[in-house]
Amino acid sequence: MHKFWLITNRSSGSTSADRQTALVGRLREHGFAEAGATNFPDDPLPSADTLGAAGVDLAVLYAGDGTINAAIRKLEHWDGAILILPGGTMNLLARELHGGADLLAIIDLADADAPRVALPYVEAGESRAFVGLILGPAANWAHAREAARAGRARSVLRAIAHAWRRTFGRGIRVTGAPGLPRQAQAVFVQPDRDRLRVAAVDARDWRTILALGWDWVTGDWVKAAAVHEVRAQTLRIAEHRPALGLFDGEPVKIAPDVTIRAGRTAPQFVQTRES
Predict the structure, then answer these.
(1) Taking 80 as the threshold, does the pLDDT of residue 226 lie above it?
(2) How far apart are CA 247 and CA 230, in angstroms?
(3) How does DSSP assign the chain, residue by residue?
(4) How many CA atoms are closer than 13 Å to the CA of 95, on its beta-carbon side?
(5) Is the pLDDT of residue 147 over 50?
(6) What is the pLDDT of residue 177?
(7) What is the number of other CB atoms lying within 10 angstroms of the CB of residue 67?
(8) CB contact at 8 A, 56 and 3
C-alpha cells in the first residue's frame, strides 16, 4: 500500500477544511494511507529522513506558492514523488503540472509510480523561485498584501503608503538583460528552460502605479502589465546596496554580487496533464 504525507497551509488562498477532508478521502479511495500531516508554518516541514522512516511514497502539497516553495526546498534530496495541488491564489505550478483540472480530478489521475518531471527555477544565492522572482520597488507592495491577508486594516494603509512612495521613486537597474528600461519599478524573472525570461514594468503615471499595486494587494501579482520582455542567461543587480526580491512571494534581500540564474530540480513531480 502506498503512503502519503499531506503538507498544507490553512491560511493559503483557496484551502478549506472541507476540501482538505475531500482530498484525503479521495486519496484513501485510491489506496493511499495517510502517514502524517503538516500545517505549515505552525508545524515544521518534514525532512526527507522523516518521510523515508514513515515509508512515504507521495508528498502531497496543498497550499500556496510560498509554502510549496519551502516544502520543495526541504525535500529536494528526497527520492519520493511530490504531488502539487491547487491550494493558493494563482496555483501556477499546479496549472503547469495539471492544466486547469479540479483538485479531485488531479488526484484521480495521480499515481505515485507515474513518471515524474523536473521543474525549472530561478536561483539567486540560497534562494529559489519556482513561479517567479520580483525585483524592484514594486516588491514593497507585498507587505500590503500580507497585511490584507491578516486583516490588519491600519497596517494595510501604512504599507500601501510606503509602497506608493517607493514605486514612484527611483527604480531598479539590472545587468545582463539588454533592452530593459534603465530603471524599472518591477522586474519579473521566470525560468525558461536553461534561460531567464525577464519582464520589466516601467510605471510612471499614477493610474499604472495604482493598477500595479492593486494586483499585488489582491495577490495576483503575475498580472502586472509587463511592457518590456527579453531573454537572458544570467542577471545581476546594478545597485550599490542589496535589493528586495520576492521569491514566489517571499521577501529576500539580494546582494549586488549575487548572480541570478536558471536551474532545474530533480524529476520529483507528478504530472497529470499531457505533455
Answers:
(1) no
(2) 20
(3) -EEEEEEE-TTSTT--HHHHHHHHHHHHHTTEEEEEEEETTTSPPPPHHHHHHTT--EEEEEE-HHHHHHHHHHTTT--SEEEEEE-SSS-HHHHHHHTT--HHHHHHH--TTS-EE--EEEEETTEEESS-EEESGGGGHHHHHHHHHHT-HHHHHHHHHHHHHHHHS--B-EES-TTS-SSBSEEEEEEETTEEEEEEE---SHHHHHHHHHHHHTT-GGGS---EEEEESEEEE-SSS-EEEEETTEEEEE-TTPPEEEEE--S-EE--S--
(4) 10
(5) no
(6) 85
(7) 27
(8) yes
199/241 Cα distance (integer angstroms): 22
Amino acid in the structure at residue 49: D
Residue tagged 515524474 (cell numbers): 116
Strand partners, 82: 59, 269
Selection from 73, 92, 107 nearest residue 191 by Cα? 92
pTM of the shown model: 0.83
HEC assignment per residue over 170-189:
CCECEECCCCCCCCECEEEE
